[in-house]
Structure formats: structure tokens, C-alpha cells
Amino acid sequence: MAGPNPAGSTGWDEEGGSMRPARRPRNWAGLLLVLLLGAGVALLALRWGAGRRADFAPGLPWHTDAAAAEAEARARGLPVLMVFSQPGCGYCTVLKEDVLDEAAFEDLVRERAVLADLDITSDPGTMERFRRYGFRGTPALVLARPDARAVAVKEGGRDVPAWLADALRTWQAGRPESPAAVPPPAGGEAPSDGPTTRPEKNLPA
């Protein structure tokens, strides 16, 4: 004869003269719901991944040192696209996630330019280079010759693909008399096209 159920049990079966926990019925409805939710999440991830990349232009090699980028540019005979940014710059994040991380941008620059993603707070040399091109806010972009002479400069993140396509045409045409192909300015302000984030006063000079 079976004794009372132990405390906390949900029912016991008496079988073969021994007591063992009763088998709980499987919750097939709950299991089906979990599977459907998992399938839905997977489909959303695939759809998201088709149009967006998980990180910053993973299909392209990006330098974080301008000198290294210029060395590769000299070896390959290509211009350098420098993208200047800084931590806390929301406009920089938008540029990187919504423009530089797109397949159209990758198609535009692949085998046409060496890329450099430069944080102006990383070292004094990067800040000096940023200021030498006449910039005052981020994001800022330069398409430069391997010797650092600017082909075209842009401050702000609007219409970057169109600006870059035109700058690459200028580079390919090799027009040294073009106003866009002059050396980087010693001072002044670069052309601005869109909102920018000004560097903090305590950044390295």
C-alpha cells in the first residue's frame, strides 16, 4: 500500500512495489510556441542582416593609423579616404552605421581607395592632422593623395556617397590644377555640409 505523497511532490505512481514520481504530461502547446518564436527571431535576423552589417564595414580593411594607410596607398597607387570621428559624436555613429556600413559604399571604394578610420582623441598626431585639413567638427572626411595632399575635403555626414564619387573622379582624372587637389590648408575652416560635433577643449592639442 502506498504511503502519503512526499512533501512537494505532484503525484506518485506505484509500480513494481516501489514508489516513483508520476510522469508529468508534456506541454506540447508551449513547446510549439517556443519553436515558432525562435523561427520568427531567426527570420528577422536574416532580413536585418541582408540590409545591414553587424559591425563597421567588415568587408573592407580599415586602418586606424594614417601613416600606415598612406604607406599602403603609396604601394598600391591609390588615394586615402580618411574618416575623422570622436567618441560621443552621434553624427559619426550615424555616418558609420547608415552610410559607411552599406554595400553601396563598399562597392564604391573597393580597389579604389585605402581606408582610414581615425579617432581624433587617440593621439596628438591625429588631432594635428585633423586641424591641418582645416576641420573644426566631426565627422569629417578627406580623400587624399598618398603624400597627404587633399583631393577633396568634407565636414559633415550628408551626401557622402555623391561627394566621394565626385572626389574619386577628380583623383582618377589627375587634374593637379583642380582647386580640390591643393595641399591641405594650414588653417581656416573646411567646407561644412551637415551637422558636426565640435571637439572638446580638453582633447590633445
Task: Describe the model.
With 205 residues, this protein is α/β, with parallel strands linked by helices. It has a domain at 62-181: Glutaredoxin (3-Layer(aba) Sandwich), CATH 3.40.30. It is 37% helix and 16% strand. It has six helices and seven strands. It has helices at residues 28-51, 66-76, 90-100, 103-109, 124-132, 160-173; strands spanning 12-15, 18-21, 62-63, 80-85, 114-119, 140-144, 150-155. The strands form two sheets. The chain has a five-stranded mixed sheet with strand order 3-5-4-6-7, sandwiched between helices. It has a two-stranded antiparallel ribbon with strand order 1-2. A hairpin with a 5-residue loop joins strand 6 and strand 7. The longest helix is centred in the first third of the chain and has 24 residues, at 28-51. The termini are far apart.
The span between the termini is 89 Å
Question: Going by CATH, what is the homologous superfamily of the domain at 62-181?
Answer: Glutaredoxin
CATH topological fold name of the domain at 62-181: Glutaredoxin
What are the segments in which pLDDT stays under 50 over at least 5 consecutive residues? 43-55, 175-187, 201-205
- Helix-strand string: EEHEHEHHEHEEH
Shape: elongated
Q: Please, how many helices?
A: 6
Overall pLDDT metric: 75
Largest sheet: 5 strands, mixed
- Main β-sheet, spatial strand arrangement: 3-5-4-6-7
Q: What is the CATH level 1 assignment of the domain at 62-181? A: Alpha Beta
